[in-house]
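FORM 7B: Structural annotation worksheet

SECTION A. Query
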Amino acid sequence: MKTDDKFLIVLKDFIIQLTIMLIAAILITQFIFYPVRVDGSSMYPSLEDHEIGFSNILSLKMGGVERFDVIVVALENPNKNIVKRVIGLPGETVEVKDEVLYINGVVTEQPFLDTEYVNNYIRDNKHFTIDIPAFVVPEGTYYALGDNRPRSSDSRDYGPFEHGQIKSKSVFIFYPLNKIRNVGN
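SECTION B. Predicted structure
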C-alpha cells in the first residue's frame, strides 16, 4: 500500500470520528446536558463568577419546574442565558415585604439563602431584597430571582419567565475542581 493511500485512510477515519463526536456533542447539549458558565455574582454564594458546569435538560423535561429549582433561562434581549432560582409558580401570588417572602400570603422560608451573608448585607446596607409588591404569576410563567438579590437582574427586571424560555434546571459545577458540587432544589 502506498503512503498516499495510508494517509487517505487515516484522514477518512479522522473525519468519521470527528463527525461522530460532533453529532454526539450536539445531541448531548440539545437533549441531555446544557453547558453553563456562571457570569457575574447574581447567584452568589450558591454559584460563583466564572464557575463552569452542566445543567440538566432531561430532568426539566421529565420532572417539570418546582419551587426553588435553579434554572437556566434564555433571554432574547440581550441574547444570553441567565441562571436564577424559581420563587413563584404559575397562578401564585409572590410578595416580599420587610425581607420576608410570601407565597399566596403565607410566609415561605428560603433555606437556600446563606443566612450569614444575608444578615451581613442587611446590617451594612439595609435591604437584601427590596420589597416586591404582590404579583400574580401568569399561567405558563415562573417568577425567578437570583440568590444574591441586590446584584441580580431577574423577574423583577425582565418579568416572569415563560416555560419555553427555560432551557434546563439544576447546575452541576465541575470547575474549579476544588468546588465540584450540584446546585439545585
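SECTION C. Observations
The mean pLDDT is 90. Residues 90 and 139 are 5 Å apart (CA to CA).

SECTION D. Sign-off
Analyst initials: ____
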